Amino acid sequence: MDKQDLINFLISEIEKQGFDIFSSNNFPLAAVVNINKRVMIQNPTTATPFKIAHELSHIISKDSHRRYDYDALNPQEIQANREAILLLWQAFEDQGGNFGYFSLFVELTDCPFELAYTIVSREYSEMIEAITEIYEDDLSADIEKNQLHDYALDYISSCNELESINLYSFLDSYHLDHELYDMAKKEFCKLLGVA
């Protein structure tokens, strides 16, 4: 998906909302929407995916118009920027993109780098944290049942002296939580035939 594909996708989403879209190369703004008249005007030479997604966010939120031309601190504008970035990020992920390609995301969407990075990284870290919290017990059980034994065998085979096994070093080597210390101790005792 390139910039024009993304713009076409966004325009079709705006049309699905029942809005008419007018284009003019002489229009002084990249894009603007009038919620009451259900119309969007864009300048196809200056419109970017971010600008159009911003206007789509206004449509979805049914925002009223700005009071001033440069009312950037208006809560509706702040929210529309945030929602536009998240909408574009979702489209980017749907096409196989991920956080490792963040610079490509910014290049394709023309989102402001710092704002996009702040919003996406916060969402990304919150998602990882939530997934980890939800599946924490399952992940521990998975490690207990399937991997701890294999990790212990691998660790033993790499030790020069079996007396020098350090369980914390073992856990760190395999990126395991220190809460698994007792379980690891039992596994090593079983493998080494120590009571």
Overall helicity = 55-70%
User: Structural class from helices and strands?
Assistant: mainly alpha
Q: Write down the Rg.
A: 26 Å
CATH architecture of the largest domain: Orthogonal Bundle
CATH topology description of the largest domain: Arc Repressor Mutant, subunit A
How many structural units, i.e. domains?
2
Helix segment count? 7
Physical arrangement of strands within the biggest beta sheet: 1-3-2
Show unreliable segments.
Answer: none
Per DSSP E runs of 2 or more residues, the count of β-strands stands at: 3
The N- to C-terminal Cα distance equals 61 Å
What report would you give on this structure?
This protein starts with a helix and ends with a helix. It has a three-stranded mixed beta sheet, with helices on one face. The protein folds into two domains: 3-111, Arc Repressor Mutant, subunit A (Orthogonal Bundle); 125-192, no CATH class. It is mostly helical. It has helices at residues 3-16, 49-61, 75-94, 102-109, 113-158, 167-173, 181-192; strands at residues 20-23, 31-34, 39-42. The radius of gyration is 26 Å and the shape is rod-shaped. A hairpin with a 4-residue loop joins β2 and β3.
